[in-house]
Amino acid sequence: CSGGLEDPAGPALSAALALVVPWLLIGTCLAACPDSVHAWAPQWQAVAALLTSDESDARKVLDFGGWISFTGIVTFANAREVAAASDLVPDDRIMVETDAPFLTPEPHRNVRPNEPRFVGCVAEFLAGRRKVPTRDFEIILDRNAEIFFGIEIPA
Question: 7: pLDDT confidence band, cut at 50, 70 and 90?
């Protein structure tokens, strides 16, 4: 939690950021600052990147109405807890991200640097866990991005 919420500059920085950007990225603080989720996230639409979190962290984010985004880590064989956490996230609050240049998903895990084009592997993995066709899941992800970021994705 560099510049964390316990730091006197942390809340001011978070509040200033929220005025510029209408969402708050909080995911990397879950393990280090679990109380920050309940203290700050309800004030803004929030997305948490569950990098190495488990089901209990996912529940904390979902309980306050947050969204959860998954990186390539969810595809790693040694990240079963992250994959299990993905099963808890409702379709209307799930996203995927590249985290480039790091955390390249399987089957490209040894490719450096990670590239945005590999985010499809994360989506495909999650679609498989949910037992839905990848294309259908991509439509869900596109709709979620439009809603969360207030954008329109061209057809």
Answer: very low
